[in-house]
Amino acid sequence: MSALHFFYCDYQDNQQQTTENIIGGLLKQALSIAKFPEDVIHSILDTKKERKKSELEDIIQCLSTTLRKFKKTYVCIDALDECNKEHRRKLIRHLKDIAASESLVIRFFFTGRPQIKEYINLHPATGVSLPLSVNLEASEEDIIAYICHKLEEDTKVLGRTEDFKKEIIDEIVATSQGMFLLPALRVEAVLDKPTVRKRRQALKEMPRALYDAFEVTLKRMQEQKPGTAKQAMDVLQWFLLARDQLTIESLRHSLAVEPHDNDLDLG
């Protein structure tokens, strides 16, 4: 069995995203999908008995032991450049040590701004090099194809003149900033409008930054019928607060259960 573990770095959470906590998060994911190795159980119990905080070396040892349960392991660290510089240096070094463990097959996938490649390749303390790097940027052709697809799917059939289609495509592509998500949010916001005039107005007033686009999307969700809007916000809260892997099935069950329920309505 292969396994995928991931961690999302956030510069706003630098105090909590220490090397210990990041590697501990990877360990938690590994233990959630593999049987607890006996030596890992004993190590955790000993730590609890002595009422002491787990040391980084203990966490690394437990992670290395647990990962041996998998045929191959993939570790994705997203936005590595947002990790505190000191924690980032230690993290990469310790991940390299884990990868060097006997009988472990592990592959790393890092994402970050372009300068992270130079940092990893040139920083002597990391001991890691990147054999392959890819600049991830949405191509103009893909963005145009997606917008055209959404226009064809549009059930309102408003303003389907070639000139208006071109206006929508040109405006959204010109401000895509090399991202795919931003144009996707924008075209949804435009097509959500009920008239050609309002669509053209939405096109002119489109947010230029991803944060603003998210804000517009949330506003659209909140403007739905009360029941639909509440369910949408409940889904977002479950995504934000879930402490374990959240599957579609578990999300459905979570949304179906109300506070103080004593039994399940499976009808």
TrEMBL record:
Q: Which Pfam families match?
A: NPHP3_N
**Mind telling me which Gene3D superfamilies this protein's record contains?**
P-loop containing nucleotide triphosphate hydrolases (3.40.50.300)
Q: Where is the Nephrocystin 3-like N-terminal domain?
A: 4-113
Keywords annotated in UniProt: Repeat
In its UniProt entry, the species of origin is given as Pyronema omphalodes (strain CBS 100304)
Origin, by domain of life?
Eukaryota
Regions crossing the membrane: none
Q: What is this protein called?
A: Similar to Vegetative incompatibility protein HET-E-1 acc. no. Q00808
